[in-house]
Amino acid sequence: MPIGPARMPLFDHLGELRMRLVRIVVCLLIAVCVFYMATPTLAQFLLHPVAEYMPVDANGNVVLNVFGAFDAFAVRFMISFWASIVACMPVIIWQVLAFFLPALKPNERKWFLPTFAVACVLFIFGTVFCYNIILDPAFQWLTDQASGFAVVMPEAQKWIDIIIKFEIGFGFAFELPLIVFYLTVFEIVPYARLRGLWREVYIGLLVISAFITPDASPVTMVLMFAAMISLYEISMFAARMVLGGKIKKQKEEAARQAAEDAEWEAEWAERQERRKLEKESKE
């Protein structure tokens, strides 16, 4: 793809944005039409990991319940739309990155294709991880809550909706390594500082895990937390390999800054104490 100028007039930026959005929308419209026709197959595929917690028909297919005249269409459209989002994610990521490409410096543009490839792989890996590892224990825990007082009757719209939320949530959550990598490599947040704040980072990841998992299940939250810690450490390792000797300089700078802060705090405390003594002596 041709690389544009580093600076563009406002209307050129708006024209570029419009072109990128049109391409994304066209791709999504085509995908929605295709996936809408294949909705029954997609629904069975989505529900396969949780099939043992649902009733099945004589052919072994999962049985869903639709309680409104509009619900069947809503479910089909929801499945086809989100399937299109996942299928078109490489196109979406490409168009978003390509929009920001002209603003990058020549030495930064070399990261474009690796970023695109890694972002796509991480998103797909997140959805696959959710499909194979998370959905089964999550729905087991959810359906077990009805034990002894209720019968689970799977409503199509709600069950499909929560599965899609799981898949999309995990797909985006697995982009974490890319974010951490660029924050450290471009020294927006120094590697040494981020490594020193590992306790705060882990607590933040725990909170994010609790928000991303839509079922409030401790099992899925723990699995998500473990996955995010692993991804975070992998991204930090990759950043360390790229930064090399810069990390030592960052540590020295961090130590110098900490010493200056400590000296300033001590001086401030001394001034406050001196003022207090002067005030007491006047009284």
What features would you highlight for this structure?
single chain, 283 residues, mainly alpha, 11 helices, 0% strand, disordered N terminus
What layout of secondary structure does this protein have?
Blueprint: H1 10-37, H2 39-47, H3 71-87, H4 89-100, H5 112-144, H6 156-173, H7 176-185, H8 191-196, H9 198-212, H10 218-243, H11 246-282
Structure notes:
- It is a multi-pass membrane protein.
- The chain is mainly α.
- The chain has one domain (10-245).
- The protein contains 11 helices and no strands.
- It has helices at residues 10-37, 39-47, 71-87, 89-100, 112-144, 156-173, 176-185, 191-196, 198-212, 218-243, 246-282.
- The longest helix is centred in the last third of the chain and has 37 residues, at 246-282.
- The chain starts with 9 loop residues before the first helix and ends with a helix.
- Residues 1-5 have low confidence and may be disordered.
